[in-house]
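Dear colleagues,

As part of the handover before I leave the project, I'm documenting each prediction I ran so the next person doesn't have to rerun anything. This entry is a single chain, and its sequence is reproduced below.
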Amino acid sequence: MIDAVWLCKLAERQMLRPSFVPPLPIRRLRDLTRYRVDLVAARTAEKNRVEKLLEDAGIKLSVVASDIFGASGRAMMAALIAGERDPKVLAQLARRRMRSKITRLEEAFNGHFDAHHRFLLARMLERIDSINADIGALDEHIETHLVPFATAAARLDEIPGIGPIAAATIIAEIGVDMSRFPTAGHLCSWAKFSPGLKASAGKTKGNGSTGHGNRYLARILGEVAITAAKTNTFLGARYGRIAKRRGKKRATVAVGRSILVIIWHLLADEETHFTDLGSDYFTKHLNPERRKRNHIRQLEALGYTVTLTPAA
């Protein structure tokens, strides 16, 4: 027998779940931004293959260079393909700041790069260049399709961590009409950026899981959150506070949720403008007693005995 209460709850969830077909401009923009994500993933995979191939040949270029696909790295790999094997000659192809690592580069090129590696490296670099060209063409197309939503994109661009491509991806995934989300909480719940709850023995607590939502939206929000974490802003301070207590993964989700809330307000009301609360927001608004306890706890953790004397 089917539980009537369960059916009522299921029907209620279905009513609250936003379900609609996006307008054609949004659908086409979404096709472009999602294809771009897939191309970037394919390029990353190809770059990983190049690093693995060089490692197999005993070339430790990635140990010395932070980005082997920069101007210096590409010049050195081109020389390897052309037949150059002298470590000193290869190291001299370094440019700008890389020239301070000439000695280490010479050691890095003491490998056994042969015809097999040469053939594969040439194919891989050609593939990477082809993907770069495709991504460049996509970026131009995305910019054209974003024109009808230029105002919304410019408003999102004000949020720390969000650039033109991130703004286009977010708009493509959630649209610009926030009327289907009664509150910012509904948007976060739909995007699966609201932590689940579990109850046991009368106690309710978070289980740390948000569920599986839109992977394209989750990916871009994660990237934006990590970028915002490096800024001297409210979002950066929020990430630091949570990461210290709960870890980087939960901090990323929490900041991603905060960004979604900001996005909802910016898109729901055209009169609303983004204003950063500042990196010192938590310090200014934290209860004085709580701040005092925090400082005492930190000093005691360092091995001090704290005695407080009120200032005159």
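The chain has two domains: 24-145, 149-197+206-312. Residues 24-145 form one domain.

All the best with the project,
I.
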